[in-house]
Every structure is written in C-alpha cells, then in structure tokens.
Predict the 3D structure of the following.
Amino acid sequence: MSKRTPLLVVDDLVTTFGAGPGVVRAVNGMSLEVLAGESVGIVGESGCGKSVSMLSIMRLLREPPASVRASRIEFDGNDILAIPAAEMNNVRGGKIGMVFQDPMTSLNPVLTIGAQIRESVETHLGLSRRQANAHAADLLGLVGIPDATERLGQYPHHFSGGMRQRVMIAIAVACGPQFLIADEPTTALDVTIQAQILEVIRRLQRENGMALALITHDLGVVAGMCDRVLVMYAGHVVEQGKTRAVFRNPMHPYTRGLLRAVPRLDTDPDAGLVAIDGSPPNLAALPAGCPYQARCPLVIDRCLVELPDLRDIGSGHFARCWRTGDDDIAMPGARE
Amino acid sequence: MTVRTLHAGGPEAGGVDGPPPLLELRDLEVLFPRTRGVLWKRQTGTVKAVDGVSFALRRGETVGLVGESGCGKTTVGRCIVRLYRATSGQVILDGKDIRTLGGPDLLGFRRRVQMVFQDPYSSLNPRMTVRDALAEPLEVHGLASGRGQRDARIEELLGLVGLASEHASRYPHEFSGGQRQRIGIARALAVEPDFIVCDEPVSALDVSIQAQILNLLRELQRRLGLTFLFIAHDLSVVRHVSDWVAVMYLGRIVEFAPRDALFARPAHPYTRALLSAIPVPDPDVEASRRRIILAGDAPSPINPPTGCNFHPRCPWATPVCAVQVPVTEVVSGGHRVACHNWRDLGAPFSHPGASVTDGNTK
C-alpha cells in the first residue's frame, strides 16, 4: 500500500486570470499526488481554487484569459502539459472521468440520454452502435436507474435532478476510467438523494479500483468518502493529510476554524457555533505573507510578511502555518 | 376526521400554563393552478403544494421547518407573510386570521411579520444604497420623522447586525454574501417585527460565514424577543437554532416535536432516513454508522401517491400505507407523528446526534 504508484502528479500549479494589476491569482502553487485507487478530498470555501485547480489539470480553461503554469502535471506517466490540445480529448472522458455540480447545464437538452452516453463509448472504446447501446443500458443499471433500455430514449428534462446526476456519473465512468474527478457532485441535491449518489461512487471505487478526486465544501462528505484530504484557502493548500489525522488533529488554524464552524449532529446544539470572523481575501489583491492572516486568531508578525511552507508534521500530514508546533496550537482544537 | 392540530404550546407540550401561541396554522392548504398554453392559458388541474398543515409557534421560540426541495416548506412560509394566499385553512396571528386582513390592518400586519430570504442579492435592489433600502420600510410605516431620526435608526440597525455605519452609503454589489445577508436581516428588523420567517437564510453561504449568521440570528432573538419560523433543508443547521422541529414531506407535516425529542427519538421513517443521510465531519463516525438509503426520488406533487405520501420509498411500509392517509398521533407531550407504523419501527439506528440530545432531555 505504501509503494503504490502515483496516478496523478501535480507540482507547483499556478493558475491566474487576466493580466496586469487586476490579475486574479486563483491557484498559487498547488502540488498534489493521487495514488491508484485512492480517494482524495479537496475542501475549501467558494473561490479557494478547488475547482479551478482541477479544471487547470484537465486543461479545460480557455487560455487566455486563464494562464496555467506548473513544473509538472503527469497522469499515468504521461506529461499532460506536452499533450497537444486535440489529443487531450482522448484523456478526458477516457482514462479520466469528470462529474460537475449542475447536471442540467452539463447535459445536452436536445440529445437523448442514450446518445450522450453512446458518444463517449463510441469515441473512446470504438464500440459499434449496437454494442454501445447495450453498454449504455448496463451503465444506467450500474448507477441505479431502473428501466434502463426505455430510459435511453428519453431526454434530460424527463429526469429529476438526482437521476440526471446519475446519468452524469454513468457518462463519466462509461469508459472505465482510472480516475474520476467529481466537482461538488451532490451539492445541488437533497440529502437522501446525496446518500444514494455517494453510494454509487463508493461502489464504483470498490469494484473498479477507480481513484477519486472529490471537490466539496462539505466536510461531512469528505469524512465519509476520502482517504486523504487537502484543505485549500485563497489558492493555497493550507493543510493536507490522511482524513482521519486532519479531522482528529487539525494543525492549521483555518482547518480548525472550519471544523468548529460546521453545525453538526453530534455536538451540543446549545453550545453555539464558533464562526470565523471576516471573509476570504480578494484574489486580485492577496496580502504578502499568509493569506489567512486577517482572520487568524494566532497571527504573529512573521505571518504578515512571509508565506509559510507546507511543513511536514509526520505521517504525511502537512500544514502551511508558522505556528504549527507551538505549544498553544499543538492541542487538537476541533474535538475538545 | 383526523387529529391534525399540532400545538407547540398547550398543556400537552409540557407548559401547563403556557401562553397562547403567537401564530397558529390550522389545516393550511395551498393549491396552485396547472396551466397549458402560452397566450391563452387554460387551467388543466391543480397541484396541492401544501396539504393540511397545522402547527403553532409560541412567542420567543423558533420552529424549524425542514424538508427536501419541492416539499412545500417555502410555500408555508410565504402564506404566513401573505405573499401567497392560502386556498383554505387559517393563519392566525394573535387570534386574528390574517387571510381576511385589508387596509390599515394589513399594513399593521406587515409591520409585525417579516421575511428573510435565501439569496439577499436578488432580494435587495442593486440600485439602492443600504441607507435607501433600510429607509424605505421606515418611510412606508411612518417610523421615522425627519432625516436625523431616520439616520440614527439606520445606524442602530446596522450596528444590530454587525455592520458599520459607513456601510450605509454602499450598494449591494460592494458586499460579500454574508454581509448582504446581514443587510437583509437589518431590513427585516427595521419595522420592529415580532415574527420573522427565515427562508433558507444560510444555504447560499460558506461554512465559516454561515456560522456568523446563525449566531447573529440567535443573538437577535435573545435581545429582541423575536419569534422565528426557520425554513431549511439541512437538519444539522435547524438543530442549532430551533426549539421545535417540523418535518415536511410532499405538502404534509409528518413529524413535529421538541428539538431534543426529535433528534433523540425520531418517530417517522422519513425523519430517520434524513438523519441517517446527513454526513458528519468525523471519519470514525462516518465509517461506523448505518445508513438508510431510500429508494427512488421524492414523488411529484402533481401526481402524489395514495395513502401515505412516503409509502413508495418507505422501508417500513405495510399494505395499509398505500390506501389510508395516516392520522397524526401523539408520541409523547408535544411530539406528534403521522405514520401508521411508528410504534413498530423499533429503536432508531443510533445516529450521531442521538446520544448528545438524549443527555439533554433526560
């Protein structure tokens, strides 16, 4: 388990939008490794760079206005940065599947569900129409849509939100990808439907050994789905490690703040929530030093001038904070 | 034919000499017309969005109304502020049915009952400064005479919701989502209401900001003695703000209970399923808990199931559920449930909230 080969390696990813004084720095030096079969959660609030980082890796951003730089992006040993744009289509949807938050805008309203699933398998697997149809029906069954054969002839508007998201998952996994990127796949859905969708993803991972990058703002979903977690803030990874370690012993003040701010079922409801004061910084005018300085209760002078490194705390647990290791932060904050 | 009234107050709720409720819904029903055609609309039928909802709210308390999208919870909220008119049933504020109010009575009612919306960006006029937005209700209701008094009140309101007085001259787009929600709350407070319907007030906000707004609402309730109907889809949010919880499914209230009783001993299968589906930010809890994974989607109110609305998805459904609408029964003081089989469900799965709330209720 320790020597599994990394499937995806990203080194020092920087994504910016625009140019000149108003340049928006969305991702500021993100590094990431996803092992085969592993599931990694990427959490953070809106605008923290979690979605943009994945779109950058998939080269789905229009350049310009975006500018994507990295010292390395490798998938399954291939240098993604060197692949010509036209050939990226063989990677996306083939070895890498993607699911986005809003299934209504990602499905074509004037094509049947069957046509949209077939498109993927005919392109990538070279199946005939008949084979593709059979495969599509199997896929709908796999994601828990009853009457699959009949459903293939229907259009997206015939499907409910939860059903559409299952269709999206069916398309994403149609070619048996090694890696699934799921960007807030359940955010628009009700909790009982969310539970169904997450169960489908879990099963696909179990049965196909598929790796998963799950982008979400919901710490509960990460706790239930992911082996490892990256916490992002203002385009930086501020903490990463095994999910259990990060949730039990959060080392970055932001992670601790987030965990205390979430209303949860298993704490005293009358105790009140501990909010994080202020709001995230403007990505077009990031301060020098640590991006969390303005909201951090542990801020010291050094934080205002120098960006901390992502420091190793042991067992693959990293935090980007000057105060890590100081006595008053070493205590776990989230689980008193 | 059915005992549908669900009183938050009254002797059975525990308070022997409890005050009468501030607001009471009695058998509220809302039908929306279904139409066909573009220019010449023909009515082809009706959709029952709210189907016999009854419950009451006592002064100074919060009832959390939860349910999934399309269950009718927002429609209930809008009937209370009279944005919609109920098709039948009553909405009684301090003993008066608000459905019949008109003229000065209606204006007086609008002063007492306010609403906070989910998306403050679309509920604030982008061309009005915060000062204008807050001054408008003051003028409509004649609450401030003269500029000095008005500006003082606006400053006071901004302070109340944690904004600074210099924010008054800015426009909505200059604020973050959390700040905009504070403005929405300040605007609701401008007319000194007793009762506020909060419709998903934190759903559009990030976690760290959400906690700020939830804390603000609790603080305001304590300081101003407000009564809230808190509409949300997220039970863990509702648990942090409510004294009572009403669980709604497809137009009907399926369970109504004091908060701690609901979380410790959920009686309705749907409530149990909801509780088991809420993710908890703790990997150990997540790894060990059992989930009730419901089959299928919530049915459409256009064509609701017969009998109990929930029976097609219910793991405990029996033949009677498909034919007979369940009567609301009393579980214990103040705790009501509408289920044929609630006595036979067995102990609920131990969900993460059970132990904590159990400790509080015993």
